[in-house]
Specification:
By secondary structure, the chain is of the alpha+beta class. Among the domains are: 167 residues, 2-Layer Sandwich (Beta-Lactamase), CATH 3.30.450.350; 169 residues, Heat Shock Protein 90 (2-Layer Sandwich), CATH 3.30.565. Helices cover 47% and strands 21% of the residues. It has 12 helices and 20 strands. The strands form 5 sheets. Strands 1, 4, 5, 6, 7, 8 and 9 form a 7-stranded antiparallel β-sheet that branches. The protein has a 5-stranded mixed β-sheet with strand order 15-17-18-20-19, with helices on one face. A 4-stranded antiparallel β-sheet has the order 11-10-13-12, with helices on one face. It starts with a helix and ends with a strand. About 4% of the residues have low confidence.
């Protein structure tokens, strides 16, 4: 579990940081949406205020007609609108007009009234099969470019007719659908816009046409150029960073009344879309608002990104610290384990050393007692005892160099024999395979070889004859290993050659006893001596540890 902690810490901190970054991002998005919704509401309020202002003019004109019971001459109509200064105060309003309502077939009477008011003939057009005729008889401002609209029958056009029929049924204002303004004989330029109609009632009239509730003389209407109307509504300072699309009804390409010149921002224009559905004089409109490049969100989008990156860096740093802490803990644990192991090994070594020292002291004391019992004087005791201690020391030195593991049999023989004879042994004296001895075997055989060499030096062919017989050494030592595995046995042959006949000694000295004790008791082996005319042969057989 400790090894997984850095990964778990990284994942946990990273998830928390990314979650916080996600919340910050959504909060930024929501703040931008709320701010843009407010901007869209502001734009909508400007549009609705401008439309209400224009419709109030239509209501004022209706009040004028009502006050005069519908009897308004062209001059009075013109004076009224001239005083209002429509061009400066009502931008987007193309004009206000009056439609005379008449039955089909009564066009002549209407044409006479038009001739009387305008001083020129304006026939009613176009021809129609409809029951009603609603030609334009008054319109302001009326300049030379739109004189031809006088006499135009709006009831012949389906979109205008639908709004007029609604206005015939009540006294409310009714807007038409999207129309092309400027239609008439000789008119070259048209504008996209809409019309608003309201019924005009009179109390008595000789040519009254009965309506549902009162006598209807005709309809007042206001014509609006959509581009100018909405552009003026949105151009007030401060300018709003919004793209506006106004649709007559559903938001379809064929119903587009107006579109702002400033395009929507590509980056956020599709995400921040505000829709408003309104009703203007009974006609449903759809307005779509999108932010332009001038729109500034209330908070930067870089904040969530920076927060997420910072969180990932923090998670990585915590994971690294956890990893280093884990490694430090592992190193501390390993050090503690090593220390415990070292202390245990040290204790074992101390116990082993105490045991070995105790055994060595016991052996030294035994050698000292036996040597003293055989010596005739102090000098002889000192020489014998020192030689035996040196033999033990040589064995101990070999074991120390091998870190108390194993000692080589050939090296042990060379050291012990070299100490006794005082020189290096020539080639051919020792022969045998490599045999590694444990501590007990090394110490026991070390003393054994010392005693055998000492006896050879003392009782063999004295001095020179032992060193050379017929040009060769009088001592030969060879060994071999018999058996395998746990049944291995070391067989060592010690041969001494001389010029005088050797006989078995009558009395057994301490050296011989020491040899027998080492081989038989210490090593659980056997030793056999063969005295013959030209020398001595000693065979030692000891089991080897596996």
């Amino acid at each position: 579990m400790k090894k997984l902690f850095p990964i778990v810490a990284f994942v946990a901190v990273a998830l928390i940081s990314l979650t916080m970054a996600g919340f910050a991002y959504f909060a930024t998005q929501e703040a931008a949406r709320i701010k843009f919704e407010g901007t869209a509401d502001d734009a909508l309020s400007r549009i609705e205020s401008r439309i209400d202002l224009h419709l109030s003019l239509l209501r004022s004109t209706q009040a004028l007609f009502d006050a005069r019971n519908g009897d308004i001459s062209r001059g009075e109509f013109k004076a009224f609108f001239t005083a209002l200064d429509i061009d400066d105060n009502f931008a987007g309003l193309r004009g206000v007009g009056f439609l005379r309502l008449a039955k089909t077939g009564d066009e002549a009477a209407v044409e006479r009234d038009i001739l009387h008011d305008h001083g020129s003939a304006h026939p009613i057009y176009p021809a129609t099969t409809q029951q009603w005729r609603t030609p334009i008889v008054l319109f302001e401002p009326l300049d030379t470019s739109n004189q031809s609209i006088i006499g135009f029958d709006m009831f012949t056009e389906p979109v205008r007719r639908a709004a007029i029929e609604k206005a015939m049924a009540d006294d409310q204002q009714h807007a038409s659908g999207m129309v092309q303004l400027g239609q008439g004989a000789g008119v070259r330029q048209t504008f996209t816009g809409f019309l608003v109609f309201v019924r005009l009632n009179v109390e008595t009239a000789p040519d009254v046409i009965n309506a549902s509730r009162s006598s209807t003389a005709g309809f007042l209407y206001a014509a609006f150029r959509a581009q100018d109307l909405f552009q003026v509504a949105l151009s007030h300072a401060p300018l709003l960073p919004v793209n506006v699309e106004v649709y007559d009804g559903k938001p379809e390409s064929g119903n587009l009344l107006f579109c702002s010149e400033a395009p929507p921002a590509e980056r956020i224009g599709a995400k921040l879309l505000a829709r408003r559905d309104i009703v203007v004089a009974g006609q449903p409109w759809t307005l779509l608002f999108r932010p332009t490049s001038a729109f500034e969100p209330p908070s930067s989008r870089a904040i969530p990104v920076m927060l997420g990156l910072f969180g990932l860096l923090l998670a990585g740093a915590i994971a690294l610290v956890a990893r280093y802490q884990e490694r430090a803990y592992d190193a501390k644990s390993a050090l503690h384990e090593t220390t415990e192991k070292s202390l245990l090994e040290k204790d074992l070594i101390l116990q082993e050393m105490k045991h070995r020292i105790k055994n060595s002291i016991t052996r030294v004391l035994a050698i000292a007692r036996q040597t003293a019992s055989q010596a005739t004087d102090v000098k002889e005791f000192s020489a014998s005892f020192s030689a035996r201690l040196q033999a033990m020391a040589a064995s101990q030195d070999m074991l120390t160099r091998s870190r108390w593991q194993k000692a080589d049999l050939g090296d042990l023989l060379r050291i012990e024999l070299g100490q006794v004879f005082g020189k290096e042994l020539p080639e051919g004296v020792l022969s045998g395979p490599e045999v590694l001895l444990d501590e007990t075997t090394t110490q026991a055989l070390g003393l054994t070889f010392h005693e055998l060499a000492t006896n050879a030096l003392k009782y063999g062919d004295a001095g020179g004859s032992l060193n050379s017989v017929r040009g060769s050494w009088a001592l030969k030592v060879d060994w071999s290993v018999e058996g395998r595995g746990r049944e291995r046995t070391l067989v060592l042959n010690w041969r001494e050659a001389g010029q005088k006949e050797l006989e078995a000694p009558v009395k057994t000295g301490f050296g011989t006893k020491l040899i027998d004790l080492n081989v038989t008791r210490e090593l659980r082996g056997t030793i056999a001596r063969d005295y013959h005319a030209d020398g001595l042969k000693v065979e030692i057989r000891i089991p080897l540890a596996a």
